[in-house]
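Sanity check record (used in CI):
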Amino acid sequence: MTSLGKLIFVDIHCRNPKTSSSNELQTDYVESLSFAFQNLFSMPFDIIENYGNTLHTLDISHNKFCRSLHFLSEFDNLTSLNLDYNNIDAYAVFPYMPKLQLLWLNHNKVEHLYPFIKNLYESMPNLKYLSLMGNKAAPSYLNGGTFYDYLQYRLFIISWFPHLVHLDDRTVTPEQRQEAKRLYKRPFLENLSEHTPLPECLKYLHKKLAILFSKPVLPDKMQNAKGTNVII
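Expected output for Leucine-rich melanocyte differentiation-associated protein-like:
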């Protein structure tokens, strides 16, 4: 369904320990772990304790995780996370994960892009690969969305993530980046805060004002233009 499938999640029980002196699994060397299809609501404590410092890739797809995802903060070195087919909605709370580069959230329950995408950016500012297919907030012909609904959705997300190179099943192009920047201009204070540290009190005030007054409105559907569409 998505070209991001090149990433392989390795089941812990199929890995061989690097130390041959013991037949037991050496947790110090586990970097990839799959707990898909385990009917989990929360992460077992022993998994966090044993693998929190070593994991780079975690697959917890096809479970029952929803809004409370604070346990992810215990996995300090995660760069890839698969949360496909869970119960995550637009109000899910993600911890700050600056090392995360790949996030799969396909087939969850995200119905609204705002403030979900804004919060996601604040938690994972360095994402390079993001997929939201199968959510109501990600319009496509499969859920009744038009081509222009999809285009606006795509440009809105690109406008938030400066390092994004792949969204859903397509690469982010320079043309899309430029058009996203034009359509969804960021407030001056937000642009400034990305490059200049701001006092916590000022950040708090800005966040409150942003929630009250600056909820973005997706532009009207673009008129169907003749010729080749260089954005997609």
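Confidence is low (pLDDT under 50) at residues 1-27, 211-215, 219-228. If this sentence no longer matches the regenerated tokens, the check is flagged for review.
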